[in-house]
Amino acid sequence: MPDPRPARLAAAVALLAALAGAAALRTAPVPPRGEDAPATAFSAARALRIVRELAPDRSPRPTGSPADLRAIDLAVARLRALGLETEVRETFGCGPYGVCAPVRNVVARLGPPGRKAVLLVAHHDSVPAGPGVSDDLSGVAIVLEVARALAAGPPLPRPFLAVITDAEEAGLVGAEAFADGSGRAAGAGAVVNLEARGTTGPSIMFETSGEPAWTARALRRLPHPVATSVAPAVYALIPNDTDLTVLGREGLPGLNLAFALGVVRYHTPLDDVAHLDPRSLQHQGENALALVRAAADEPLETPARARLVYFDLLALGVVSYGAPLAVALAGARLVAAAA
């Protein structure tokens, strides 16, 4: 009788290779789109041009620095050129960690008021140790490119707000100033926040605020989703915060996106234009644009809430179901294991 062990070993190796290939497919960033991409689409080439304009050298941009003020002026000029009603909200604020600073938040509106708005948020400041191109000039460039794509297309069914905050690295001071209880954030109904903890890798949805039932529907609109409901649960155990921490505390339902490979360059002088992966910029940007459009189609004035379990299938689509079904499935697995 032939020995079955070599065949079993070969089958196990083939299965492991298939699983490794599937994992690589899931986490691979998408190809960047060029300057010739349709006007209503996101283009990494156009966004990268903005990054280079905002960061002409490797100067850090801590809040209030000349490099930071220059980036603010350029972002405001671009938003106004797109026809967005744009203002710089200057104030002195204090963050949740007790750090206080003068802040300059950029807020631009596309579309008339009257309905709850969708916010797309990034921060323009960097740590003193590096130029902060991925964290978070990439987010600023995405906000500007998304605003351009939205302005080039049909009007959204509700307003869009581009919010570029200050002093995030100092302790979420700009976000705190934006949601300062004066009612300035009361007209918002959803928020998409953009972050980076590295310079490459796929755009991952890693945090949520609130329990909106439309979250999974919005994630299904992503062309290459990398998302699981486990990620926010794990992130909640980590002592890290972003601007969504503040905005979520104010009751805003939202999603947080980031790419996080190349973490050795995070908060260092190597977080520069040369190390920013255009594929990650494309993935993060097209996710942001899709989520803004998806949230704009939702009934944000009377949002339904539900606890959902969701996960992507090899970044090809998202499967979701309610928490009661998840509990039932877990129970069935336990019974099967016991049997």
**Total number of helical segments?**
10
How much helix, percentage-wise, in residues? 25-40%
Main sheet properties: 7 strands, mixed
Radius of gyration: 21 Å
Query: What are the low-pLDDT stretches, counting only 5+ consecutive residues below 50?
Result: none
Distance between the first and last residues' Cα: 32 Å
Strand order of the largest sheet: 1-2-4-3-5-7-6
- Classify the secondary structure makeup into a structural class: alpha/beta
Per the principal axes of the C-alpha atoms, what is the gross shape? globular
Order of helices and strands: HHHEEEHEHEEHHHEHEEH
How much of the sequence is in beta strands?
15-25%
Mean pLDDT over all positions? 89
Number of strands: 9
If you had to describe this structure to a student in words, what would you say it looks like?
It is a single chain. This protein has 339 residues and is of the alpha/beta class. The protein contains 10 helices and 9 strands. The strands form 2 sheets. A 7-stranded mixed sheet has the order 1-2-4-3-5-7-6. Strands 8-9 form a two-stranded antiparallel ribbon. Strand 1 and strand 2 (100-110) form a beta hairpin. The longest helix is centred in the first third of the chain and has 23 residues, at 5-27. The chain is globular and about 80 Å long.
Q: Which key terms come to mind for this protein?
A:
single chain; 339 residues; alpha/beta; 7-stranded mixed beta sheet; two-stranded antiparallel ribbon
Question: Quick recap of the structure?
Answer:
Helix content is 38%, strand content 19%.
